[in-house]
Design brief:
Helix content is 58%, strand content 2%. It is mostly helical and 679 residues long. Strands 1-2 form a two-stranded antiparallel ribbon. The protein has a two-stranded parallel sheet with strand order 3-4. It has a two-stranded parallel sheet with strand order 5-6. Its main location: nucleus.
Length: 679
């Protein structure tokens, strides 16, 4: 080491030393001149960078990307770049949606839809989210010109060779159903065949009947996969029913021409040019010089009936004429023929076997209960479509055909094990309490919704069920009566479903004959209404049901027996002495008064002074306009037929003491004076 250090010092000493502080030292001439013979080029800024720097920050994503930059990233082969572009589009849509919808809508829809069948799962899921935001910002009218492109990608995803893409096509359909229900309704004939191919296949090419197929992969069971598909089918049918009933603005635009062309090989293609009566404008202006026509039989007699529907043949199993083939009933019948066998076949796969004892066929697993609920809901929706079609065409052939075709199968396959309930451990996890698990998952152990739908659908399939003395009807009535006696439901949806069943069983059908079981059900409901402590909304709906039985069908009321309603009718005026009353209840009471129900009017006359004294304290809920409920109450008192009671009201100070507007006091006095003149 010593030798090395000596060598290093010797090398350092041998280096040339430059002295920095030499006086008078100058550089040679010519070496300190600046050279100016170099070339200069201009700095060019691209247009996209200029636009990005000059525009508002709202049109940029968090990474300073414009709409064009985000759309360009969608064409990248890297999944991360695609997700970044989709994320940027969502950020811009949240800040300034008009930047995309007004300037780049066509390019955005086509670019985003093209990656809806991407091989990467994350890219597909982000694509569906972005499409949902884009549809919500643009609106259905603006998306309409590009819906064919979206529809092509949806059908491609439904029939894709990759099972994962086929599964995620249901999420894409969910986006359409949520944001574009009108467009889905108009193009349902193009979606429906590929939709059913996901869970079934045709038995033969010449008939519409189908049979179930296996699941897409081994990671999900057949039942789970069919449940996912059937849930989307319920959404599509619900949109169709709402459009038929007129609940939603679903349908073509006013100035949009109807498409009369279609694929002849597709039985669902719309070919009829018949315009439904709901699209015809009605003149609501009253003309006292014009004659008045009151429909006494049906509520929709003002609707025109097409001649093709009036003079057509009955829909049977024979050859159909050309007018029947282009009719909407043909498509509806094809829907029913394709779906109903699939529903029964799906139930036969999951229903419990009867080998485990007498009660084994009543116990359902969680999957079986879920499947049964979906199947019943779809069957009821198909029945509602058939009923609506019969009302529109004033023809009951379709309803009779539906009952003859599927009533027996329903009783043999589903009603045989009625009533159903879930096993105590259905859906419970390991190491946890079964009751706590079911409460968290909202599991209906008694299967109330499934059983009530079975009762409702059985009554729909049997026209004269009220006079039926079969064991099946006894089973249905006894179950409903037990549920009415033990009216303790945690879910308001279950209570609403039971009220729907009661309304159909007690009122809504043309069957007038009443057997002992139906009359007993009505008595039980009356007793529960009078004695039990039910929620106020439930009490109001039961009251409206009783009023409708008396007002809408006088013959049915007499068949039940007028003495059944006597006590209840005497109690009704007491509702007007309370502090709160529902507007619909007031309307029902007014209908009873207009019908001149003697029991109700006599009780009203006895309590009229207390009712008038309570007018200022009475609050009417669910009224649309101010004093709308008070007007109904005054109109109700108009039907009092005792002259002495009316004169006493006018002469007393009760009217002056009422805490209402002066205009309403004047209306109250004029109403009573008008009634006195008419007596």
């Amino acid at each position: 080491m010593g030798g090395n250090s000596r060598k290093f010092k010797k090398a350092e000493k041998s280096k040339i030393k430059l002295k920095s502080s030499l006086k008078g030292a100058k550089l040679p001439k010519g070496t300190n001149v600046t050279k100016t013979n170099f070339k200069v080029r201009k700095i060019v800024i691209p247009d996209q960078i200029k636009q990005r720097n000059l525009t508002d920050a709202n049109v940029l994503s968090s990474r300073s990307l414009t709409v064009k930059d985000c759309l360009a990233k969608l064409k990248h082969t890297n999944p991360t770049a695609k997700c970044e572009g989709l994320r940027g589009l969502r950020e811009i849509l949240a800040k300034l949606p008009t930047e995309v919808t007004d300037n780049h809508l066509s390019t955005a829809i086509k670019s985003i839809a093209s990656i809806s069948i991407d091989i990467e799962r994350d890219v597909r899921r982000d694509c569906y989210k972005t499409l949902g935001l884009l549809f919500a910002a643009a609106g259905q009218e603006n998306v309409l010109p590009f819906f064919d492109v979206l529809l092509s990608f949806l059908r491609c995803a439904m029939t894709h060779i990759q099972p994962r893409i086929q599964e995620d096509s249901l999420l894409l359909l969910d986006t359409f159903l949520q944001h574009l229900p009108q467009l889905v309704l108009l193009n349902r004939d193009k979606i429906f065949p590929q939709f059913l191919d996901m869970i079934s296949k045709l038995r033969s090419e010449s008939k519409p009947e189908r049979t179930l197929t296996l699941s897409l992969n081994k990671q999900s069971t057949n039942t789970k996969w069919r449940t996912r598909v059937l849930m989307r089918l319920i959404g599509m049918l619900r949109i169709l029913i709402d459009s038929k009933r007129g609940d939603g603005k679903v349908g073509p635009a006013k100035d949009e021409p109807m498409d009369t062309t279609g694929d002849e090989s597709n039985p669902f293609t719309a070919k009829s040019t018949h315009i439904p009566a709901t699209s015809l404008p009605l003149n609501n202006v009253f003309d006292y010089r014009a004659p008045l026509h009151f429909p006494l039989v049906r509520h929709r007699l003002y609707q025109p009936c097409p001649l093709t529907c009036l003079f057509r043949k009955s829909i049977g199993e024979g050859n159909l004429s050309l007018s029947d083939q282009i009719d909407e009933g043909r498509k509806l019948k094809t829907y029913v023929q394709m779906l109903m066998p699939l529903l029964f076949e799906s139930w036969l796969e999951v229903r419990p076997t009867s080998g485990g004892g007498e009660t084994a066929e009543h116990v359902l697993s969680h999957e079986a209960a879920t499947t049964l609920g979906l199947l019943l809901e779809i069957a009821i929706q198909l029945w509602e479509l058939v009923v609506i079609y019969g009302r529109e065409t004033n023809n009951a052939d379709m309803t009779r055909w539906f009952r003859e075709q599927y009533a027996e199968d329903f009783c043999n396959h589903i009603l045989k094990g009625f009533p159903f309930y879930q096993s105590p451990g259905a859906g419970a996890g390991k190491g946890r309490s079964t009751t706590d698990e079911n409460k968290e998952r909202n599991v209906d152990e008694k299967c109330y919704s499934q059983n009530f739908n079975i009762c409702y659908f059985y009554c729909c399939l049997n026209e004269n069920f009220r006079s039926d003395r079969s064991k099946n009807y006894d089973k249905v009535v006894n179950y409903v009566e037990r549920c009415v006696n033990n009216w303790k439901f945690r879910s308001p949806e279950v209570s609403s479903l039971l009220l729907k069943v009661l309304r159909y069983m007690l009122l809504e059908t043309d069957c007038v004959s009443i057997n002992k079981n139906t009359r007993g059900l009505l008595k039980t409901l009356l007793e529960v209404y009078i004695q039990a402590k039910l929620p106020q909304d439930t009490r109001n709906r039961i009251l409206i049901l009783f009023c409708d039985i008396i007002v809408l069908n006088d013959r049915l009321w007499r068949e039940y027996g007028q003495e059944i309603f006597t006590l209840w009718l005497r109690m009704l005026p007491n509702l007007l002495k309370k502090t709160v009353i529902d507007f619909n209840v007031l309307k029902a009471l007014l209908c009873l008064a207009k019908q001149k129900n003697t029991i109700f009017l006599h009780s009203l006359e006895e309590n009229v002074e207390d009712i008038v004294a309570n007018v200022g304290k009475l609050k009417v809920v669910n009224e649309q306009f101010k004093n709308e409920g008070l007007v109904l109450l005054i109109n109700l008192l108009f039907w009092i037929s005792k002259r002495e009671a009316l004169e006493k009201l006018l002469q007393s100070d009760l009217v002056k003491a009422m805490k209402i507007d002066d205009d309403m006091k004047a209306y109250f006095r004029s109403t009573l004076r008008t009634r006195l003149v008419s007596l």
